[in-house]
Amino acid sequence: MLNLFDAISIGIGAIVGAGIFVVVGIAIGYAGPAIVISMIIAAIVASFTAFSFAELGSAIPRQGGVYAFAYEIASPAAGFVVGYLWLFAQTVAGAAISLGFAGYFVAVFPSLSLKMVAVSIVLALTALNLVGIKQSAMVNNALVLTKIAIICLFIAIGIPRISLSNYSPFAPNGFVGILQGAGFIFFAFLGFGRIAMLGEEVRNPNRTLPRSILLSFATSAIIYVLVGLTATGLQDYRLLAQSSSPIADAAEVVGVPALVGVVSLGALIATVSVLLTTLLGLSRVSFAMARNGQIPKVVAKIHPRFGTPYVSILIMGMFMAILALVFDLRQTSAITSFSILSTHVVLNYCAMRFRKKMPGVKSFKAPLYPLIPLLGVVSCCVLLFSLPLEAWLVSSAVIVVLIFLLVIKRNIR
Questions:
Q1: Are 197 and 63 in contact (CB under 8 A)?
Q2: Contact 121, 101 (CB under 8 A)
């Protein structure tokens, strides 16, 4: 069973990854040096959902996270749509993470193809998941501590070398650009919900889950703001916006070649570990949905030798590889943010209903109820409107298909 430190480590490990190392460059393209404001806005929006996750996770400590909450509190039908939408979002996120890994890898080996590196890392980790991977808490903790140490090194060396002239113009695209940057950087905060999916594997979940969710989120938010402040202070925001390895490019200004290599290594470690846990998380939600009869049993079928849900892993892995080949980093990040924001709207709605529907259930009590989950619903909707058209088209099409399947599937329990 996982203790508090293990759970916090999993949360930070899932949050600190491709978002801060890669997607930050895209967000800077919209917000400029005001990316720090975008990060604060995204953190505030995510904090509302973090409180909702904390309350619901402590009350319903089951595999499946947001799917389990929607199934239990809203309805099985809502669980069906949210569960499949979450699977879709995480699969697209996997494609974005693989492209982030490829950006840093190609920066070291420029003769390689970015798309081929992205597809290769997805297939390699899919194969690793197929044969089974026993990630101990100790190994995960070591990876997380390594990532955090490298980021802290970048901040410590970079801040004294900041040039204030790089902060001008501070917000080149005004408040609209800041809001668009927040919509993209929200991608970077998606990992804190990963802890809620491990409800059945955490010691004393009623106490450990909410504490680990909120502590991992708060720690990551502080790190993000410091990284954004340092990166834009070191390098012209226009160059960072065009880079597939923005933090490494910012580190290059410091004039310490070893720091660039260390940052690139940190980015590779971060993206690989997050991609690996993304594939693992997909199998957990698939299992939860299959247990409720909302996904074909064959998808959650366990391999007789390796003991892994190999059909689910194969489907998700191949879909990730195709998406990485077809879309670019900006598109996959936008689609992921839109889809996850949509599931968070439902999550916060469930938090608003929870205390009335399950009045006797012991749980962590989020403050300012029901204001916090209501603000979560409203703020998530605002960020949805900041995302580009292709995110609306792709994600809305997926939601329409899911609703259509829901209508024709009469035997949903």
A1: yes
A2: yes
Residue 66 lies in a domain: yes
**More confident call, 373 vs 133:** 373
Q: Which two tokens stand for residue 292?
A: 């409720």
**Is residue 413 in a domain?**
no
Number of H helices, E strands in the chain: 17, 0
- What is the total residue count of the chain? 413
Q: Which residue has the tokens 């390895």?
A: 245
Q: How far is the C-alpha of 75 from the C-alpha of 159, rounded, in Å?
A: 50
CATH code of residue 49: 1.20.1740.10
102: containing domain: 4-408
Whether residue 159 lies inside any domain: the answer is yes
Domain count, the chain: 1
Q: How many CB atoms lie within 10 A of CB 207?
A: 13
Three-point CA angle 312, 210, 196, nearest 5°: 5
Residue 139 belongs to some domain of the structure: yes
pLDDT digits (tens, 9 = 90+) for 255-270: 888 898 899 888 888 8
| Predicted local confidence at residue 41, as pLDDT | 95
